[in-house]
Amino acid sequence: MIVLKDLLEKIENLSKDVTLIAVSKNVTCTEVRELYEQGQRNFGENRVQELAKKELELQDFTDIKWHMIGRLQNNKINQMISLKPVLWQSCDSFERALEVDKRLSYKLDTLLQINSADEDTKQGVSVANAAEIYERIQSECKNINLKGVMSIGAHVDEPKEVQKSFELTYKIYESLKSKGATICSMGMSSDFELAIKCGSNMIRLGTMLYL
Ligand SMILES: *Cc1c(COP(=O)(O)O)cnc(C)c1O
Questions:
Q1: Which pLDDT tens digit goes with each residue over 175-209?
Q2: How far is CA 180 from CA 4, 57, 134, 146, 184, in A?
Q3: In ligand 1, which atom is closest to the CA atom of 190?
Q4: What's phi and psi for 27, nearest 5 deg?
Q5: What percent of the chain stands above pLDDT 90?
Q6: Do 192 and 22 contact (CB within 8 A), yes or no?
Q7: What average pLDDT does the structure give for the chain?
Q8: How far is the CA of 44 from the centre of ligand 1 (A)?
Q9: Rounded distance, CA 162 to CA 22, Å?
Q10: Percent of the chain with pLDDT over 70
Q11: pTM of the full predicted structure?
Q12: Cα(116)–Cα(112) distance, rounded to whole angstroms?
């Protein structure tokens, strides 16, 4: 298990304004508790089922903030809504936003996921359509409260390619600031330093926290 204080110091040296989300999808509540005891409060899960399980098991830790970061199947929408995540980071299409909005009875803070590496295996809207879809969701989905964008860096060994995908995401984020965007969520264990250099203000780290 990582020493959180050291990691936060390292992050702060790169930028003063970065929120760390501890991704707990591959660990148990034991690890979550250990990080909590070190002061971590924001946690991310990529499956609704697992989010529900951990929320229930850790319900006494009332100040944990749960983020939904994975693909949301339509048959899991109601369950996600009932779990009230602090941020739904993975809204991957206008249609998905509409489906969730239809069933929401409260305002859900949400990020639009951008497939900035243009990979078939990845969820998200295309770079070309991102700004337009963002505005469309804002005007047509009254309970989807868009706060910015999320992206997964290119899944390649070539740092230049990863950098390009981060830069594309950041550019879109910048253009959406006038529409109220304040969160640019990008960067994982293998590429968070690069992501921060490209302007990320929210990183989602899993693997490296538990080594
Ligand atoms: C798993 C996951 C992460 C964390 O990835 P690591 O490489 O383990 O740091 C971040 N974001 C999303 C969307 C994920 O699914």
A1: 999 999 999 999 999 999 999 999 999 999 999 99
A2: 31, 35, 11, 8, 12
A3: 7
A4: -130, 175
A5: 94
A6: no
A7: 97
A8: 9
A9: 21
A10: 100
A11: 0.97
A12: 12
Nearest to 42 by CA among 23, 16, 18: 23
pLDDT band at 157 (very low <50, low <70, confident <90, very high): confident
* 50: Cβ contacts below 8 Å, ≥ 6 apart: 25
- Residue tagged 């009332």 (tokens): 62
Q: How far apart are the first and last CA of the chain?
A: 6
Helix boundaries (H) for the chain: 4-14, 29-37, 48-57, 77-83, 94-103, 130-140, 159-176, 192-197
Pocket of ligand 1 from Cβ distances under 6 Å? 23, 25, 46, 69-70, 152, 188-190, 204-207
What was the pLDDT predicted at 155? 87
What is the CA(203)–ligand 1 centre distance, in A? 9
DSSP state of 17: S
Return the best residue to mutate from 89, 91, 188 for the ligand 1 pocket (most ligand atoms within 8 A of CB): 188
140 C-alpha to ligand 1 centroid (Å): 30
